[in-house]
Amino acid sequence: MRYLSTRGQSPALPFCDILLGGLAPDGGLYLPESYPRLGRAELDSWRSLSYADLAFVLLSRFIDDIPPADLKALLDKTYTPHTYRFVAHPGEDAAEIAPLHWLEPGKLALLSLSNGPTLAFKDMAMQLLGNLFEYVLEQRGETLAILGATSGDTGSAAEYALRGKRNVEVFMLSPHGKMSAFQRAQMYSIQDKNIHNIAVTGMFDAAQDVVKAVLGDADFKARHHIGAVNSINWARVAAQIVYYFKGYFAATRSSDEEVSFCVPSGNFGNICASHIARSMGLPIRQLILATNENDVLDEFFRTGLYRPRQAAETRVTSSPSMDISKASNFERFIFDLTGRDAARVRALWAEIDQGGAFDLAGTPEFARLPEFGFVSGRSSHADRIATIRDLHARFGVTIDPHTADGVKVAQAYPQPEGVPLIVLETAQAAKFAETLQEAIGRDPGRPAELAGIEDLPQKSVVLAPEVDVIKDWIAARLAR
């Protein structure tokens, strides 16, 4: 399996090379040269597999430059009940990874993805990414400086996955003062010497722009061995594909049945994985994209206009991990929507990279959109408070604000009889105590071993979101 850039001007590479590189040299994102197609009999034969075994049969289709026995060992090491031990909802089996939690049996369910060490769905992919990095770097005798940006959960998931790993330094940018207290504490309280937190003044998009600019500087990237851990890294998206299959198998009895998924979306990485699962043959009827007040993606799926907002237009909301107005992974979907026309993608992103927009309304590409199963909707603060309160009252379930955005939007798309609707849970409510206090009048509680995390010593540096400032700071730490 080789990987192509969405902009078509970088050589095709094997998995391990793009794992360490992240962004393609031409500024594009990597995708496999083709998506493996799966038959229904094959799908049904996988129903009883453990999570680690399911990950192996799926990811071995995308990774052929790691010996199968080594890949299997890495997956077995990653997906263990001990790692994913923080039960999100009453009645869930603590030994099950990514359990399905029915709200209305056969109709509406949550896919619990927040049972990992940072209580967020990002752990599902990031724990594997940490083990892959360590394995490949050791095989090659190389070192890597990981650079990433986070609006909340990616940073802590990456740092927990990479803390103490051999041959890896982590530099994580986050928006200064914009995350929840729990999210900040999870990141900034890590004292491992290979973890470096940079709080940038401004919104997440400014941090993400800096990361892309640094990764786009081929000389700096090569000189300092810089790689990516955001979902611009294909391995993150590939690992997320697995839990869509897991959720599908839990909700159905045979591959003759369909399901729909609703995915809270900011950077488009999570729902991009579901698009790929659908392209591989998983019987998905609808992919429902849910945004908060930062509704750039909802606007595109409704109108065809993709118009990233400037920092001043990006709103600070009570679902902060989705306070994003430039969806990095969206380029992957547009590549597929245009029939993998790299020249067309280059032209569209030339507008975006210059601070502009593009409008596909009335184009053949937008006319094809229904083939991909996407619909979308938007949620507000009032919506998420009402949704959290409603699910708590009706089902005794406590959900976080981002998952509430998903549930709210999902309710606008009732499914035909016999088609379950699965909302992807993004995090445990414990990470957003302030919003939960407003919604249900009490602290949602948290696992005992995470009690008092906000009181731990924290370390971070506050810098302006300027490329040269960040590069100089990183270079100085790597020179020590």
Structural overview:
The protein is of the alpha/beta class and 480 residues long. The chain is built from 19 helices and 15 strands. The strands form 4 sheets. It has a 6-stranded mixed beta sheet. Strand 3 and strand 4 (108-111) form a beta hairpin. Helix 3 (51-59) crosses helix 10 (234-251), helix 5 crosses helix 10 (234-251) and helix 16 packs across helix 17 (401-410). It is globular. It starts with a strand and ends with a helix. The model has no long low-confidence stretch (mean pLDDT 94).
Summarize the SSE layout with pairings.
Blueprint: E1 3-5, H1 15-21, E2 30-32, H2 40-45, H3 51-59, H4 68-78, E3 100-104, E4 108-111, H5 122-140, E5 144-149, H6 153-162, E6 168-175, H7 181-188, E7 195-200, H8 204-215, H9 218-224, E8 226-228, H10 234-251, E9 259-264, H11 269-280, E10 284-291, H12 296-303, E11 305-306, H13 330-337, H14 342-353, E12 358-359, H15 364-367, E13 374-378, H16 381-395, H17 401-410, E14 421-424, H18 433-440, E15 461-463, H19 467-478
